[in-house]
Amino acid sequence: MRDQQASFTASWVAGWRGLGSLLGDARIADDPYGARFGGRWARALARAGAQPAVRAGLIRLPQVASWVGYMQVRTRLFDDQLRSFLAAGGRQIVILGAGYDCRAARFADRLAGARVFEVDHPATQARKRAVLDEVGASPAVTYVAWHFERRPLAELPGALAELGLDVRRPTLTIWEGVTMYLSPEAIDATVAATRALGGPGTRLVFNYLTRDMLERPRGLRRLAAAAVARVGEPFTFGWHPPALPAWLEARGWKLTGDRDLAEAALALLPRFVAARVDASDRHIAVAEKI
Ligand SMILES: C[S@@+](CC[C@H](N)C(=O)[O-])C[C@H]1O[C@@H](n2cnc3c(N)ncnc32)[C@H](O)[C@@H]1O
Fold this sequence. Notes:
This protein has helices at about 10-20, 35-40, 40-50, 50-60, 60-85, 105, 120-135, 155-160, 185-195, 210-215, 220-230, 245-250, 260-270, 270-275, and strands spanning about 90-95, 115-120, 140-145, 170-175, 205-210, 255-260, 280-290.
């Protein structure tokens, strides 16, 4: 991403995450901060959608249903991994490339007694902190500014240990919306570093694009790829799903789950929204340290 600027894509996805409100009672994830981070367009849609009749019309617009549905299912699957880790007794969470992920605030009750570390590009993190200040939210987070392509990720476990992470205890790393923007070297370094963030029971949850989508984008995907490239955050990396288990195992991780988002949307969302989530080439994977 461009060096001095806060991430545009982080703002975009946060806006759509917040607009889950357009689903009313059918929403499967709630982010009251998202629209604020999305900017004017997201706040305007959220305001308009506060009226039930307008909301019902907005959510039926194909592009709105598609983005809201995609972010709902993505957010929910990551949220479920956080819940599952906490239920198993985990108390250390690292959010890599946190952007405007407000899980620390959204799950403040369940996270009581846990440590949350957010690691992100300095410019994005600065904007996040400023906006949270403006809205009067102060989640219990340890913020760590880091440029993934500049500062070696191998230094991350040591840096977080100095801030209080116990690398002998289980750690959940949430790596949402990041892998597609990194170089193969940064991917490898991150996967190695996250393994060193905790002891037995350590988990990694991340989403990814299939390599087919990157290499042979079809239809609207071509437009999406061009749009993110234009804002300085081109898609660069993906995996072939069948190759992922062996790829992870070679790096000391066992794949425990891998779902495509179109299938998950059909299982979780109202049919008219799920039908718009054309995301079988976008996956969420969960791995456990071997
Ligand atoms: C699409 S956003 C995802 C944000 C958040 N995880 C979410 O899902 O809402 C990508 C995030 O990766 C971060 N990022 C991208 N390239 C980075 C780099 N080279 N160093 C540090 N962070 C980077 C951006 O700052 C941004 O927060």
